Amino acid sequence: MGKVSLNINGRAYGLGCEAGEEERLTRLGQRLDARVAQMADQFGQIGDLRLLVMAGITLIDEIEDPESTVELQIEERLGDMTKKLDAATKARESTEVEAVEGLMTAARRIERLAERLAETGH
Questions:
Q1: Span of the secretion signal (predicted)?
Q2: What are the φ/ψ torsions at residue 111 (nearest 5 degrees)?
């Protein structure tokens, strides 16, 4: 049997678990602590028990209404992807402008060189 110490809202809670489940339980405890912190930020330090109950209720609500949670995640990811696409588009446009400017500079040099060659009769 394994043991894990979880830190939730600044308090340590020792829990037993099956051998090999320590990492998963620790990760779940971290998620619960993050949710409790979110509740504390929103409502203040209204007591560990109330914060834990509120965090538990919001987590259960997400489990029972997975569609809204999935939709929210999709919207967040879509927003992130849109930002990345915009940044990539701007970078591509900038690169294209630089390439055109480079080609124009090269063309002007070639024209000047051709004029000089024409003047010297070569």
A1: none
A2: -60, -45
